[in-house]
Amino acid sequence: MLTKNSVTLYLMTTITTSANKKIYFASDQHLGAPTAEASLPREQKFVAWLNAIKDDAGAVFLLGDLFDFWFEYETVVPKGFVRVLGKLAELKDAGIDIYFFVGNHDLWMRDYFQKELNIPVFHEPQEFEINEKLFLIGHGDGLGPGDHGYKRMKKVFTFPFFKWLFKWLHPDIGVKLGHYFSVKKN
Description:
The chain is an alpha/beta fold and 186 residues long. The protein has one domain (20-125, 136-183): Purple Acid Phosphatase, chain A, domain 2 (4-Layer Sandwich). It is 37% helix and 20% strand. It contains six helices and nine strands. It has helices at 36-53, 82-93, 112-117, 148-158, 160-167, 171-183; strands at 2-4, 7-9, 13-15, 22-26, 57-62, 97-101, 121-122, 126-130, 133-137. The longest helix has 18 residues, at 36-53. The radius of gyration is 17 Å and the shape is globular.
């Protein structure tokens, strides 16, 4: 995205696949919820799915909330999810394009996916041209009218001061606190 004279310009990504390749989309796995143990079967199924699509995938779009809570400190990422991260690295190393869009449960994602997995991370919906068809791709929470409570909460959670304040909590405390609020029911 570029901003020029108060006009936002989006750079469109163009993807052209061969006839035997497919585009895959996945969203809202919420790995880690309600507990790491309870989500392990879901993680294993997701990894099995990634393994099943690796031969015919032209691109994979992960549309947010892959994790139920994700916060990247300067040098620490949440514990767990080794199977998923390893499988994503394997697919990316095999030449499959993977795109990650943050959702409301992983909106504190920074540069881990970009630096460690070479997977671009988008914090806003993006336009893609896929095989000559236009798509607007993103997680979607809070984009439409209404949902004012979530929109207020997102402003608080993405406000730089609160992110800075949270990062000063010890990761064991910060992750436990984030996980508590992530799985807490209203």
